[in-house]
Amino acid sequence: GASGLKLNPKERLVFQEVLCWVMEDLAEKIVTLLKTGSLPLLEELKSQVPDSVLTLLRVPGLGPKRAAALYKKLQIATLEDLRQACLDHRVRELDGFGARTEENILKGIEAAIQAGQRILWYEADQIVQSLREHLGTIPGLRRLEPAGSYRRGKDTVGDLDFLALADDPGPIMDRLAAFRGVKDVLARGDTKMSIVLQSGVQVDLRVVPSESFGAALQYFTGSKEHNVILRGMAKDRGLKINEYGVFRGEERIAGAEEEEVYATLDLPWFPPELREGRKEFEWAAAGKLPDLVTLDDIRGDLHMHSTWSDGIATIEDMVEAARARGYKYIAITDHSQRVTVANGLNAERVLSQWQAIDRLAKKWRDFHILKGIEVDILEGGGLDLPDDVLKEADWVVASVHFGQNQPRDQITRRMIDALKNPYVCAIAHPSGRLLLERPPYEVDLDAVLRAARDYGKMMELNAHPRRLDLDDVACAAAKAYGVPIVISTDEIGRG
């Protein structure tokens, strides 16, 4: 408030009057938005700039000011315009850009294009659940299943595929066309329909007969690599597998359920998440198909932020939420001081927090609160807090937040040096990627994993839906090195 500013009484009065005017104006805009669903000023501003200009903001490191400069000074309105301007070296001529910025923009354009074509898995899940609820009450609908990359649990999802088993395709297609947020019906046939949502996501529906439902679900779930291997194995046995079933000559011998499709080749049913054409068939042949980790397996969370830094809930509230989930422990790992934008903790504050945790921990006999910290790995090497502080912690995760554009050798050395520290327990979000926003930074992950093995440390699978870092391939590499993986949420206290 104004009392926190160094103002004389007259200046304070003016400040308060301006603040009241701003709040009144904001309140009016909120009321208008709630009543009409739009804001006249926003619509006016949008009319002055092509919608395509907003796609420039998908390029990592390209904020509103730079996007506006590109549009106003170079008339760049699309990602393709931007690519050509970078190739022509016109971008570097603008004030505040330069050759290095131009190079980084060019590298980020592909990520921006992908961001426009895919959505995060959890966003896809929200659509899937809404569609299930919307379509689920239709009389005669006997089964409705999502397929594709969504069903395989991929980090990001393109189109959404649904398979339906229904007495009559007509009502389910009518109902799909009436789904909220539908922008257009792209196609509709006797058994197939495609719509596109206002968000740009395409939804494809196929109504299939009961004798083919399992085969179609297996086929449209994929992956392509998994299905190629499966079809090759079928061919070796004189069989044919497609979306309609498993055939010996003209005779369909299986297809109603996925399990029977795989059983014709003496294979177990593969969890969709394993169907990537990697080692799943080797595991099946050896009788060692792995069990997937489920939510029921999670016993605690070792990366969480409270109101002491950038979280939105108190430690006590987070404990109660964790206990309600059936957890047995959590670690409070607020940011260290280097992350000033997140109100990071200096040595004095973190020690004070740990004292508070010690007092609070006495409240529960059946639950453990670990005193932790997410300590920054500094740009020049070393950690953001001294060892005499870190040694007092129960759990320390080390992270790279700054200097992410450094050369591969430098970032790798920073992480390995952090792993050498006797008080560091794990490396958090090791690649630094933000899905559809920021690519991984350059790091020799094999070298980091070897160091984690040698120093007896862990690597994090950051379960935040925008990170999922390490990814599945890197987690498999960690397992091969014998490096334990800790699954954490990076939660900021939503419960």
Description of the molecule:
The protein has 18 helices and 17 strands. It is α/β, with parallel strands linked by helices and 495 residues long. Strands 11-12-13-14-15-16-17 form a 7-stranded parallel β-sheet. α13 links the parallel β11 and β12. α4 runs antiparallel to α5 and α16 packs parallel to α17.
Overall pLDDT? 91
- Beta-strand level of the residues, as a percent range? 15-25%
Measured as a percent range, the helix fraction is 40-55%
How many angstroms separate the termini? 29 Å
Tell me the Rg in angstroms. Answer: 27 Å
Largest sheet: 7 strands, parallel
The total count of strands amounts to 17
User: What general form does the structure show?
Assistant: globular
Query: Which regions contain 5 or more consecutive residues with pLDDT less than 50?
Result: 1-5
Question: Would you tell me the structural class of the helices and strands?
Answer: alpha/beta
Q: What's the tally of helices?
A: 18
* Sheet with most strands: strand arrangement: 11-12-13-14-15-16-17
